[in-house]
Write a structure and sequence with these properties.
Blueprint lengths: L4 H4 L8 H12 L16 H16 L3 E4 L5 E5 L7 E5 L13 H16 L8 E5 L13 H6 L5 H5 L9 H7 L15 E7 L4 H5 L3 E7 L1 E10 L3 E2 L11 H19 L4 E10 L5 E2 L2 E10 L2 H22 L2 E10 L2 E2 L2 H13 L4 E6 L4 H5 L5 E6 L15 H18 L8
Parallel strand pairs: 3-4, 3-5, 5-15, 6-14
Antiparallel strand pairs: 1-2, 2-4, 6-13, 6-15, 7-11, 7-12, 8-10, 9-11
Helix pairs in contact: 2-4, 4-13, 9-10, 11-13
Bound molecules: glyoxylic acid and manganese (II) ion (MN) (2 copies).
The site of glyoxylic acid has 4 residues, from loops.
Length: 422
């Protein structure tokens, strides 16, 4: 895609890296945890505090701030005409989150807009920054819930009824923290969407490459498995008479590890949460509940993995004499990003003297939902040691700056993306 004349006039424009880092650090001061990370589970008081801080920055910048019915916050710089070029991400975190996952993308988008305003660079269409509700899905499943509702992939009513891992209802929590907004969903369709994010994996660092031009996001299958057995005395119940949900949960965990090994390639499988009831040393549990997170870049292979898991659950329910129930928490097919956005990210990264590689995303992102309604893509920067969803998550300042400058110029270039030229 030819880069529009508009951006060519502003090739020297650079973000204010000090302001970006000050904001990243200030947001990380909201609900800090030991080790430098954050706990801001979606729609908790901590999430509210984070939202309030970023909304205040949006208002200081004179952005038009809208809050929609699912709590997504969109800050728009209403210049030019037509649909906006949107960027953004999320500021909710997992319980042991780092300070960059999501927050970096939101704050870099804000910085890109402020940079343009400071330099009086007026794009031909609005620029917007979105903070999407509950991207992590750690408290309310599915993940990317806010952006899913934004693009009409789930009804607002259904989303408001989702129940959290702590029993709270999403709609009630939105009202409680003051983020049940008046703007209806689905939201306004952007002209294009680009999200900047840390890689959260080891590939860029291993390849000594600074920028990832993200081509796709792998498919995600989450389910909750509940095993009902026979609770009994740990000392008196012979092993041959047990119907033990803890044992079955362990077998399922081992099965998933072996399944990923056998399928090979991109297949990953995780048991991230196991709850036992009554969870006591001397009681064979009555019940185990665990979550399965299964991902593959290939939909056919993901389906094969799901079918093998289904067969295994049926078989172990019989052999151990337990009842197993499953509940789908999230199911998203792999997503391929728009070639024009991928090319643009690669071109701008090179133009700014960065090494760049095309790569799929292992993590889920809001951009994969926006890709349903507009040209969309992503920019990755390296994660030190590939660590994320962990307080130790870290990205070098120079890499954060490089990514934010590429985001700025990609947003500007997208303002002149010809939507008829596919
Ligand atoms: C979202 O962070 C995910 O689990 O990929
Ligand atoms: Mn994220
Ligand atoms: Mn995350």
């Amino acid at each position: 895609m030819p880069v529009g004349d508009f951006r060519n006039k502003h090739l020297d424009l650079k973000i204010n890296s000090r302001r970006l880092h000050e904001r990243i650090n200030a947001l990380a001061e909201v609900s800090p945890i030991e080790g430098g990370g954050n706990c801001r589970l979606a729609l908790t008081d901590e999430d509210k505090d984070g939202r309030d801080l970023v909304v205040a920055w949006m208002r200081e910048l004179d952005l038009e701030v809208t809050i929609d019915a699912i709590g997504n916050i969109i800050g728009t710089w209403n210049v030019g005409s037509g649909q906006s070029v949107m960027s953004g991400s999320h500021i909710d975190t997992v319980r042991t989150g780092g300070r960059f996952d999501g927050c970096y993308g939101v704050l870099a988008a804000l910085e890109a807009i402020e940079t343009c305003k400071d330099a009086n660079v007026i794009p031909p269409r609005p620029l917007a920054v979105g903070i999407f509700t509950d991207e992590e899905g750690a408290r309310f499943a599915p993940d990317m819930l806010g952006s899913l509702v934004y693009v009409g992939g789930m009804s607002t009513e259904q989303a408001l009824d989702v129940v959290a891992i702590d029993g709270a209802k999403l709609g009630d929590e939105l009202v409680r923290i003051g983020y049940a907004g008046p703007t209806p969903c689905p939201g306004a369709v952007p002209h294009a969407f680009v999200e900047l994010h840390i890689e959260q994996g080891p590939m860029l660092e291993a390849n000594d490459v600074r920028i990832g031009a993200v081509t796709s996001v792998q498919g995600i299958s989450w389910q909750e498995v509940t095993i009902h057995g026979q609770s009994n005395h740990a000392g008196t119940t012979p092993m041959s008479l047990r119907h033990d949900p803890a044992y079955v949960a362990a077998e399922i965990t081992v099965f998933l590890r072996n399944l990923a090994k056998d399928l090979g390639g991109d297949q990953v499988c995780t048991v991230g949460k196991i709850d036992l009831h009554p969870n006591l040393t001397n009681v064979v549990p009555a019940r185990a509940t665990l979550t399965l997170d299964v991902r593959n870049t290939d939909e056919k292979l993901l389906k094969i993995a799901e079918s093998k898991i289904k067969d295994f659950l049926a078989q172990i329910a019989i052999s151990e004499g337990v009842e197993i129930k499953t509940r789908e928490l999230a199911r998203f097919e792999p997503v391929v990003f728009d070639d024009r956005v991928i090319d643009l990210v690669e071109e701008i990264a090179k133009e700014q003297n960065n090494s760049v590689q095309r790569m799929p995303s292992g993590a889920g992102h809001d951009a994969q939902m926006l890709a349903r309604v507009c040209p969309a893509g992503m920019i990755f920067v390296p994660s030190v040691k590939g660590i994320s969803h962990n307080a130790a998550e870290f990205t070098e300042e120079a890499d954060l700056n490089a990514g934010a400058n590429i985001l700025l110029h990609t947003m500007l270039a997208l303002t002149t993306l010809d939507s008829t030229d596919k």
